[in-house]
From TrEMBL:
CDD domains: nat-AmDH_N_like. This is 4-hydroxy-tetrahydrodipicolinate reductase. InterPro entries: NAD(P)-bd_dom_sf (IPR036291). It comes from Alkalispirochaeta americana.
Length: 361
């Protein structure tokens, strides 16, 4: 009988409430947890997952500054990283894992396919992970709902001319870093200066930023790269445009700790357009904002061609789906070759009825 998969949790905020519980309910063993928030450090993980009324787990959240020392000592099978949205923000955590030969999965949105936004850093992580024999990857909601769902539908299509996608999510569900990254709370002038202006550049200027590792990709930038890789398409040009979202009434934001006045940015829409040598265009849009009372998450994709197919998912439980995808990916990552392996090169995500270790090869 195989031993339980030993899991470390890096980042003990909103998402870890689900990832840690899901790991345990799928037969995994949590052996360490790390965070930078002084209000979280020192807590038993059962206080975070909401299971403290039954029994403490005996795993206490440690300061993230001790992560390398502890991970080297306990050598878990995999580390789940649920912190920030840009590769540069999770680089340290990924490099700690890579240096110590520990498999790592992150829900950092850029990490789903960082080869088209920060290839130099991706290569650095990839080379180190190959040397130490571990696998690094990004996953999450986009792995299924912006990726595998779309390519599965494409597999039932004779001819594709265009793929169009639009997905919305409430920034309140993901923490302050994500909300601020979407411009929530900014004036329209501030949004133009701090966010939108960065995309008003030439293709050559954008490529230079990508090569330097200073480009700021929206979530769909990396998703479009993932889709093209999965579908065997050759990208000739890719652009993105970020537009502020507003509301005609004041909106209270517990995440920002403020009321966003009417007319200020509640978040943003990011539209990414990808052109390919094969003549197929991918237009994908993600809308992240502080929701008004009548708004909800929505995921809508259309494959144009012969035949045309549309799929609409209303009110997906985006947070829980993100976390379940991450946990279900654990066996795939452990079964994958060493290096930075993006998930379009792994099997499609599967429901795990049994314990996670039973799916190891």
């Amino acid at each position: 009988m195989k031993d339980k998969i030993r899991v470390a949790q890096y980042g003990c905020g909103k998402m870890s409430i689900y990832t840690m519980r899901y790991v345990q309910e799928k037969g995994g063993q949590l052996v360490a947890a790390f965070d930078m928030n002084p209000h979280v450090i020192g807590k038993d993980i059962s206080e975070i997952t909401g299971t403290a009324t039954t029994a403490p787990e005996g795993v206490v959240v440690q300061d993230a500054s001790r992560a390398e020392e502890e991970l080297k000592r306990i050598k878990p099978d995999v580390c789940l990283i649920t912190t920030m949205s840009l590769l540069r923000d999770v680089e340290e955590a990924l490099m700690i894992c890579a240096r110590n030969g520990i498999n790592a999965i992150t829900i950092c949105e850029e990490a789903i396919y960082p080869w088209n936004s920060d290839p130099e850093m991706t290569r650095k992580i990839d080379e180190l992970a190959r040397e130490t024999g571990c696998t690094i990857c990004g996953t999450g909601y986009q792995d299924v709902f912006w990726g595998n769902l779309i390519t599965t539908l494409a597999g039932a299509t004779h001819r594709i001319t265009k793929i169009k996608g639009k997905s919305s999510y409430n920034v309140e569900d993901y923490g302050i870093a994500l909300a601020k990254g979407h411009g929530a709370g900014l004036t329209l002038e501030e949004f133009e200066s701090e966010i939108a202006r960065a995309d008003n550049i030439s293709d050559e200027e954008r490529q230079k930023l990508v090569d330097q590792g200073t480009f700021l990709p929206s979530y769909m930038w990396n998703v479009n790269g993932w889709l093209c890789s999965q579908l065997g398409l050759t990208v000739t040009r890719q652009t993105q445009t970020c537009v502020p979202q507003t509301c005609q009434e004041d909106l209270s934001s517990s995440t920002l700790g403020m009321t966003v006045p009417a007319g200020k940015a509640t978040g943003m829409s990011a539209l990414v357009v990808t052109e390919t040598e094969e003549g197929i265009t991918i237009e994908s849009e993600c809308i992240g904002k502080v929701y008004a009372p009548d708004e909800c998450d929505r995921n809508e994709w259309t494959i144009q061609g012969e035949p045309e197919t549309q799929v609409v998912i209303t009110r997906p439980s985006t947070v829980e789906l993100t976390c379940a995808t991450m946990v279900n990916r654990i066996p795939d990552v452990m079964n994958a070759p060493a290096g930075y392996v993006t998930t379009e090169k792994m099997p499609r995500t599967l429901y795990r009825q049994g314990s996670l270790e039973s799916y190891l090869i």
